[in-house]
Amino acid sequence: MRGGKRAAIRGSDAAPPPDDSTATAVPRAPVKLRKAAAASKPPKRKAAREEPVRPPARKAHLARRHIGIVLTFLLMVIAPVAVSGWYLYTRAADQYASFLGFSVRSESGPTSSDLLGGLTSLVGMTSSSSSDTDILYKFIQSRDLVERVNARLDLAEIWSKAPNDPIFSFSGNSSLEELLGEWERKVSVYYDDGMIDLRVKAFAPEDARDIAQAIFDESTLLINQLNDIAREDALRYSRTELAESLERLKDARQAVTEFRNRHQLVDPTADVQGQVGVVTSLQQQLAEQLVSLGMLQANAQPNDPRIEQTQLRINVIRDQILAERQKFGSETATGEVLSEVVGRYESLSVDREFAERTYTAALAAYDTARGEAARQSRYLAAYIKPTLAQEAEYPERAKLMLIIGGFLMVTWVIGVLIFYSLRDRR
Question: Transmembrane segments in this chain: where (predicted)?
Fold first, then answer.
């Protein structure tokens, strides 16, 4: 029975498929309908790949690196901030500040050019001198000023009045190099638009004010020295020109004196002019006698004695004129021709006149320069006199704590970030 059923099943499985020609015919749908039905069917999805299931994450626990980060935070941030706060509020001594502000002013009176300009003389003659202010700005930070102030005040003793404060107190020796370093810490200089502001710190308000006053006094002395130098420079050139013109005038006058002594003539030009006057007078007389002779020859008899006398007078006048003219070319006591002597004297006279005019101009220029130098002056104008502090403003403890804490915090954060970046690259 069982064998027959198995054979039948096998026979049915092995039987060939029925022939389409003998099977019952089923009407087929049109091609368009089949395409539409195929399009309306949902696409077959591909079987998703099965991923292995990961085990659940373990619970967070404190690693060694976390402990190290906490320890570094305590050592690099908390501990330094705590030590700084302890020092600032228990050991740091109070410091008092004295403030000073001044500028360099220059005053000059109205000059001739200003008066000719009109409106410029109406404007105030007070102005600031930026070059002098630049000099003062450098002078306040110089070793020279530290030496001068230290000679008046014992800076080492003033800045060493807080022995329990080794950080803010002066702990060096009395050398100028050590004092200059402390000067840069205690004296702050601010320069803006020709004005200088100073802040001087000390452990006593009187000491801070005394140092500020000493700085102001020494700066005033420096400005006075610069003012004197400027005046001397303004007068030096005019004084030199005046001295040279005076020497030239002396030489010219000495040359004229030597010429007169050598030729024994006070003024050869005057002598020549006198001779010229004589010749001119003789020529006038000659002209009158010639006119008289002509009238006599026209009106009198040829043997008239007046004609002979007039002719004789004319001849004498002509001879005198010739003699006077010959004197111009005659030799003087030194054997030189008079015309050459007169020419040399005129040259010396021109030199003397030029020297006199040059000296007059140089003297006027010197008087003008001296007047200008007397009108121009520089002085130190203090718009903030050295103040006397009533309360200690320094050290600024809260500000220093914020700066120290912020700097340490930023340093620690950068260090942690660097550590994790290096750890992630492994």
Answer: 67-89, 400-422
